[in-house]
Design goal:
four-stranded antiparallel β-sheet, 44% strand, five-stranded antiparallel β-sheet, Immunoglobulin-like, globular, alpha+beta
Amino acid sequence: MVISYIQPLLLLLASVLVFFLPALYSGTVDFKYCNGIGYPSINITRVTITPGSFADARIFGFTEKTLDAGLITAAVKDGDAHFAIGYYDLCACSDCPILANTNFSLFLFQIIVYRDEYERDEKISVTWTKSMTDATELMCVYFELPDSTSAVSA
């Protein structure tokens, strides 16, 4: 009789671990502002990455302005060149509107990363512009992805 209770419990525990395991491997990474000095109304405080072929990134920050729209672009940064690998609507990756003088987080899901296709000195950049037609840069950061050895293997 004891075995009949243990098996479903173990199955439930395994299901929970598989679902939440990637979140346990996310880590804070060092980042830099693309312009080297920061941006007047948006301050980024932390970037976390869940490594893998489809990396998830979360960018935490503070804004002095209310923001209700924007385009977030993830790109491979090679020197001064940027090669887009993902586009996100602000309201799809954060609660909208982001009110003035509040903390926020942007969740960029499944950034497709093919490590073999870029060199060690290339980085991932995340740029926040007003819209697809207005390229006014509100914020841009870049960072290296965690080493692939720390990625969760499937």
